[in-house]
Amino acid sequence: MLLVIIALVLAVVGYVAVSAGRQYQADRSFHPIKVPAPTATPADVAGVLSAATTTPKPDASTPAGPAPSKQGISNALAADLANGALGPSVAAEVYDAGTGATLLDQRSGELVAPASTAKLLVAAAILTVHKATDRFVTKVVAGSSPGTVVLVGGGDPTLSAAPAGQPAPCAGAARISDLAAGVKASMAGRPVSKVVVDSSVFSGPSTAVGWAAGDAPSNYASPITGTMADGGRSAPTCAPNDNRSGTPDLVAGQALATDLAAAGVSRGTAPPAAKVLAEVQSAPVGRLVEEMLTDSDNVIAEVLARQVAIAMKQPATFTTGAAAVSATLKQLSINVGNGMKDGSGLSGADRVPAGVLGQVLLKAVDPAHPELHPIIAGLSVAGWDGTLVEQNRFTGSASNADGVVRAKTGSLTGVTSLAGVVTDADGRMLVFAFVADKVPAGDPTLSRTALDQLAAALARCGCK
Questions:
Q1: Cα(first)–Cα(last) distance of the chain, in Å?
Q2: How confident is the model over 339-373, as pLDDT tens digits?
Q3: Angle at 309 between CA 278 and CA 273, to 5 degrees
Q4: How far apart are CA 416 and CA 430, in angstroms?
Q5: DSSP letter string, 284-339
Q6: How far is the C-alpha of 184 from the C-alpha of 278, rounded, in Å?
Q7: Cross-strand pairs, 409
Q8: 105: phi then psi, degrees, rounded to nearest 5
């Protein structure tokens, strides 16, 4: 029980720390989320949680309130599930987080295009093969000729090219400027004339099957390489929709070359057993997972999928990354199948059984799987941060869900999805997943609003 208490406190503290800076992205007042728990919260734990939360709760929360019934859930969602904006193909699952009981199962076994909710699968896989505190290493080693150094990528998606003295855009990111300082110290005044970039930690194509020609580079994805700066962005930022580079490896190499006053940058490989001149460590895996989920970052998702393959002693490609994620989730008794073509859900060819999205979230809220808790911390909160304050999400009649819904969004042409957790009106935590993969052409905000209404209906519902 003590471990459960500690986990809950850390989740609350982490939530406040990560999200406080994003609070005012929403042009609405903030409603603090009710702290959900899958089992009853003893009185002593309630006091600890209260002390850890900076904003008073608007009303009493009983995390293990009365269990909803299948009929109650069905009645509450029937009208919204029939919303024409979702089209004729809607998969829907609702689970009781406390018992794991299935409360609604509508086509959960059907293969659907998950869009960005696929990132939940990558999150669970990387947190299964790595600790949340693990980090990835980027090195600079001596080249094969005097004056040449090699930047050896380690698959760190947020290594930053921010100038020395300026904060790294992404929290906890490693810095190329620190690599440069280490190289200068190791070189003891000897000049560097050339930087070679070694991205051989990854292999295969840099874009996935099913990606459109305009997907990489774009403002939401870059080609995936083992060395990159600032998530493949053209400039050192961490904003979700900043332009990405078509040559992210060379952008990183040029940043190091600039810091070292080197004249040339090229691609290549490090000599065997080369002397290490400097190295830096990435932000922790748990932090990368949270950032990937909150901002729906495609590049981080693809890099982490490859890191799952590496952990399983496989080459790091789109294909092996997706296969490694699937194989890892089998260890959690979650059968994804072989329908994923990438890790981000950006591929229009991705297909998974709809039910696996809710199954991953059930594992993530389970006290028996504390290693997966960063998934919940990374979900956007309605009315507060990430993708749930974009494009007028959870406004109007769905605004009752502000602060009580955490979820991952997904959106492709013809596909809208939403999967997360919600505290219902009785204080019971529910897990839900909704995927509409034949959305009518037209205004995409209509289908997103329809999914918001489904989540808001669960927030209003006691559903007994």
A1: 28
A2: 999 999 999 999 999 999 999 999 999 999 999 99
A3: 35
A4: 20
A5: PHHHHHHHHHHHT-HHHHHHHHHHHHHHTT---SHHHHHHHHHHHHHTTT----S-
A6: 9
A7: 418
A8: -135, 100
For residue 410, which of 437, 373, 376, 375 has the smallest C-alpha distance?
Answer: 437
Cα 175 vs. chain centroid, distance in angstroms? Answer: 21
Distance from C-alpha of 220 to C-alpha of 232, rounded to nearest angstrom = 10
pTM: predicted TM-score of the whole model, two decimal places: 0.87
Cβ-contact 296, 412 below 8 angstroms: no
Active-site residue list: 116, 119, 296
Structure tokens at 407: 């979820």
Residues 6+ apart with CB under 8 A from 382: 388, 393, 394, 401, 402, 403, 404, 405, 406, 407, 452, 455
The model's pLDDT over 167-197, given as tens digits with 9 standing for 90+, comes to 999 999 999 999 999 999 999 989 999 999 9
Instruction: Return the DSSP state at 212.
Output: -
Dihedral, 342, 344, 347, 353 alpha carbons, nearest 10: 80
Q: Please state, in angstroms and rounded to a whole number, the distance separating the CA atoms of residues 179 and 171.
A: 18
- Which residues partner with 309 through β-bridges? none
The pLDDT value given to residue 49: 25
pLDDT in tens, 380-389: 999 999 999 8
Nearest to 229 by CA among 178, 273, 186, 194: 178
Taking residue 148's Cβ as centre, other Cβ atoms within 10 Å add up to 18
Q: How many CB atoms lie within 10 A of CB 6?
A: 12
Length of the chain measured in residues: 464
Beta bridge partners of residue 352, listed in sequence order: 112
Question: Can you tell me the distance from the alpha carbon of 39 to that of 7, in angstroms, rounded to the nearest whole number?
Answer: 13
pLDDT category, 64, cuts 50, 70, 90? low
Do 260 and 190 meet the contact criterion of CB atoms below 8 Å apart? no
Say which residue, 93 or 389, is predicted with more confidence.
Answer: 93
Q: Is 73 in contact with 101 (CB distance < 8 Å)? A: no
83: helix, coil or strand? coil
Q: Which two tokens stand for residue 245?
A: 């580079």
Q: How far is C-alpha 183 from the geometric centre of its chain's CA atoms? A: 33
In angstroms, the CA 304 to CA 122 distance is 7
Alpha helix segments (H runs only) across 150-236: 176-187
What is the rounded distance in angstroms from the CA atom of residue 230 to the CA atom of residue 297?
Answer: 12
How does residue 273 score in pLDDT terms, banded at 50, 70 and 90? very high
276 to each of 146, 157, 345, 392, 463, how far by Cα in Å? 15, 21, 37, 49, 61
Residue 390's pLDDT band (cuts 50, 70, 90): confident
For 1-55, write each residue's pLDDT tens digit: 333 333 433 343 333 333 322 222 323 233 333 333 332 222 222 222 222 222 2
